[in-house]
Amino acid sequence: MSTPLVDYDVLPGPADAPAVVLSNSLGSTRHMWDRNIELWQRHLTVVRYDTRGHGDSAVVPGPATIDDLADDVIALLDHLGLERVHLVGLSLGGMTGMRLAAREPARIDRLVTLCTSPYLGPAANWLDRAALVRSTGTSAVAEAVVDRWYSPGFLAREHERVARARQMVAATPPEGYAASCEAIATMDLRDQLSSITAPTLAIAGADDPATGPAHLQAIAESVVDGSLLVVPDAAHLANDEQPETIGDAVLAHLLGAPPE
User: Fold this and answer.
1) pLDDT value at position 260?
2) Coil, strand or helix at 211
3) How far apart are CA 6 and CA 29, in angstroms?
4) 248/19 Cα distance (integer angstroms)
5) How far is the C-alpha of 37 from the C-alpha of 61, rounded, in Å?
6) Are β-strands 200-205 and 108-114 bridged in parallel, bridged antiparallel, or unpaired?
């Protein structure tokens, strides 16, 4: 069996526990889930990976598409012998999850989309960002990106966490970051949402300047079985800013608990 393109961890849960795959955001690594996995691993086998061109995963030269990113997940599932999994994705990871749930419904059981959107135009903004990081490096965007990841209160209070987040963005290979920007630029999943049959929890950070609650409401209202959760005092990297609220909500959804 071939080795998957992406680097990953498998964190075993209880015997016979279902598996959940965690898909990271643009400019982050699988460690963006560090504050969540202890809770989820009590009930689930957790598979987390670095999107291509991020963290320890291979850099593939040239533009990527959202289907390329979905293909990487399918290759990982096949490598691990996982026929059907839950998927939790934030931002770019949520886009990957939506494409997978629409294209490969037999492989995705339950879906959580965090702080994401089925369409995030205009394309020119993403192409300009790709050109910038290719020419000057990812550190050129690290501060601005992380300023959008967290709410103003968190930025003012959690200096050490913010500094680590900026280092994570700056360490992302420029070609990997740029290729993912190009995937977002060419992505439009709006017409595919109605074909997503996996029960879907769409989570928005109330203070998210990038993919605010309206984006997640559109997902929840367009899939076959969707629900919306808006989390106060959270911006784009909401799972890191509000790990307890989001951790509990994600777990309840993946275990099939009725919404409160």
Assistant:
1) 46
2) coil
3) 11
4) 17
5) 31
6) parallel
Amino acid, single-letter form, for residue 173: P
Report pLDDT digits (tens) over 178-200.
999 999 999 999 999 999 999 99
Place of tokens 């997978």: 100
Residue ranges, the chain, pLDDT below 50? 259-260
Which CA distances in Å does 130 have to 81, 124, 137, 144, 201?
35, 10, 10, 15, 30
Mean pLDDT (the chain) is 96
Q: Which of 245, 170, 207, 237 is nearest to 253 (CA)?
A: 245
Only one residue has tokens 């643009």, namely 26
Distance of alpha carbon 243 from the chain centroid: 15
Helix (H, G, I), strand (E, B) or coil at 48: strand
Q: Do residues 17 and 44 touch, judged by C-beta distance below 8 A?
A: yes
* Contact between 201 and 113 (Cβ < 8 Å): yes
**Third-level CATH fold of 8-254:** Rossmann fold (3.40.50)
The verdict on pTM exceeding 0.85 is: yes
φ and ψ of 130, to 5 deg: -60, -45
Instruction: Tally the residues of the chain.
Output: 260
Q: Hey, where are the domains in the chain?
A: 8-254
Measured CA to CA in angstroms, residue 197 lies from 104, 106, 211 at distances of 10, 10, 23
User: Which of 177, 179, 175, 229 shows the shortest CA–CA distance to 203?
Assistant: 229
* Distance in angstroms (rounded) separating the CA atoms of residues 164 and 11: 23
